[in-house]
From TrEMBL:
<dbReference type="InterPro" id="IPR053967">
    <property type="entry name" value="LlgE_F_G-like_D1"/>
</dbReference>
<comment type="similarity">
    <text>Belongs to the flagella basal body rod proteins family.</text>
</comment>
<dbReference type="Pfam" id="PF22692">
    <property type="entry name" value="LlgE_F_G_D1"/>
</dbReference>
<feature type="domain" description="Flagellar basal body rod protein N-terminal">
    <location>
        <begin position="4"/>
        <end position="34"/>
    </location>
</feature>
<feature type="domain" description="Flagellar hook protein FlgE/F/G-like D1">
    <location>
        <begin position="95"/>
        <end position="158"/>
    </location>
</feature>
<dbReference type="InterPro" id="IPR012834">
    <property type="entry name" value="FlgG_G_neg"/>
</dbReference>
<dbReference type="InterPro" id="IPR020013">
    <property type="entry name" value="Flagellar_FlgE/F/G"/>
</dbReference>
<dbReference type="GO" id="GO:0071978">
    <property type="term" value="P:bacterial-type flagellum-dependent swarming motility"/>
</dbReference>
<dbReference type="GO" id="GO:0009426">
    <property type="term" value="C:bacterial-type flagellum basal body, distal rod"/>
</dbReference>
<feature type="domain" description="Flagellar basal-body/hook protein C-terminal">
    <location>
        <begin position="214"/>
        <end position="257"/>
    </location>
</feature>
<keyword id="KW-0969">Cilium</keyword>
<keyword id="KW-0282">Flagellum</keyword>
<keyword id="KW-0975">Bacterial flagellum</keyword>
<dbReference type="Pfam" id="PF06429">
    <property type="entry name" value="Flg_bbr_C"/>
</dbReference>
<dbReference type="InterPro" id="IPR001444">
    <property type="entry name" value="Flag_bb_rod_N"/>
</dbReference>
<protein>
    <recommendedName>
        <fullName>Flagellar basal-body rod protein FlgG</fullName>
    </recommendedName>
</protein>
<dbReference type="InterPro" id="IPR037925">
    <property type="entry name" value="FlgE/F/G-like"/>
</dbReference>
Length: 262
């Protein structure tokens, strides 16, 4: 019976939906995390009678007879909306308010991108992320520097002993993408570009199309716990309804078998 296979596709789709929701909930406190959502499409239809086809008396039927074969998952896109900014009181923490990503240089030479601005210094005084990967362009803070300041445009200034005016060390740059939803997640709060995302567009904080930077703050994940729990309940009910269809189809098959046995 076709209903068994159709309902099975629905159960598989909702199983994936629950997995995505559970990942969102698990990352509710992850810095810079962007929640995922699942998109579905219906599968192919079998046409028993096409709309507009001729009937026996040479008239056209107003509606056809179509039977679908289930559902498929077409994408698990990310919602790239702004998360709330939370104060950390750490001088190397930087949040992006608006559009843009930080550029991170990986040990293998690849360039990745992140919204996680929880930075620190390595043994050489270079500005790195929590995994020790260098920020691009590289910025080195002298070990005797005081009053490190990062303004809204990303300019890094420090005060050195014996000097009254701050010294500029460099500038944090931002990149944006035409289709940021097309970025590929690789874990560790990092993204890589794809053919769908397009080439990175360089800029600075406050530039056209770019957000501004906020020192001593981090961007929280944009997961809304209440929304995810509501989606979880809806996914669970959809799974149960598909399982009921399988049970009903099985009972119908059993009744048919009983007739033949009788």
């Amino acid at each position: 019976m076709r209903a068994l296979q159709t309902a099975a596709t629905g159960m598989l789709a909702q199983e994936l939906n629950v997995q995505v929701i559970s990942n969102n909930i698990a990352n509710v406190r992850t810095t810079g995390y962007k929640r995922q959502t699942v998109h579905f499409q219906d599968l192919l239809y079998e046409n028993f009678r096409r709309a507009g086809s001729a009937s026996s008396d040479s008239t056209q039927v107003p509606a056809g007879t179509f039977v679908g074969s289930g559902v498929k998952t077409v994408s698990t896109g990310r919602i790239m909306s702004q998360g709330n900014l939370s104060s950390t009181e750490k001088q190397y923490d930087v949040a992006i308010r608006g559009e843009g990503f930080f550029r991170i240089r990986m040990p293998d030479g690849r360039t990745t991108y992140t919204r996680d601005g929880s930075f620190d210094l390595d043994a050489q005084g270079q500005l790195v992320n929590r995994d020790g990967y260098q920020i691009e362009p590289g910025i080195t803070i002298p070990n005797n520097a005081t009053n490190v300041n990062i303004n809204a445009q990303g300019t890094v200034e420090v005060l050195l002993p014996g000097q009254t005016a701050p010294q500029q060390l460099g500038q944090l740059q931002l990149v944006r993408f035409v289709n940021k939803v097309g970025l590929e997640s690789i874990g560790d709060n990092l993204f890589v570009e794809t053919a769908a995302s397009g080439q990175p567009i360089d800029g600075v904080g406050g530039g056209e199309g770019f957000g501004t930077l906020q020192q001593n703050y981090l961007e929280e994940g944009n997961v809304q716990a209440v929304t995810e729990l509501s989606s979880l309940i809806a996914a669970q009910r959809a799974y149960e309804m598909n399982s009921k269809v399988i049970t009903a189809a099985d009972q119908m098959l059993s009744a048919t078998s009983a007739i033949f046995r009788g």
